[in-house]
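Slide 14.
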Amino acid sequence: MKVEEIYKELPNLETNRLFLRKLTKEDAPDIFSYASDPVVTKYLFWNSHQTLDDTMDYINFALHQYTNYDVAPWGIHHKQDNKLIGTIDFVRWIPEDRLAEIGYVIAPAYWGKGITTEAAQKIISFGFNNMNLIRVEAKCYKENVGSQRVMEKCGMSLEGTIRKGVFKKGRHWDITLYSILRDEFFNSSPQETEGKVTL
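Slide 15: predicted structure.
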């Protein structure tokens, strides 16, 4: 399978509370509101957005990826609140190895509500059902307990710690590595595969 087979037209995905869709320039204020928050970015691999121009640079990058049929993010749109509250994507996909890595960020007002888990489960389901994946993995700073809980609630298993695995924000960080395999996913509870896919 080739990357462009999936990303030639990034599909809209739907869960009970969320639409996962392409980003647009109109999403800039919503993205900036959380991407500029140092509490949100403390344990992320990228720095806080300082101005709306930083956010527009990110959106323009995403739009370029869509245009070029390359790996790109889904915006997490909250149905009830009718706003974009985060992004989620396959930050790395190696089709020949049939593996991919997910990454996500969400506005703090929506932490602790199972929303990130809901989005991540949908992306993982899409990967196994539509991208021919055998393995999906995720990484985070060891200190990022909230992200680790999302991975665990998605059925992922802790594989270990990559000591001093990355140098960011002036220091080395230990990285925790989680994964779930195709067979494990399809043997897990039914609710993990709920939701609609709109191609």
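Speaker note: Residues 43 and 144 are 6 Å apart (CA to CA).
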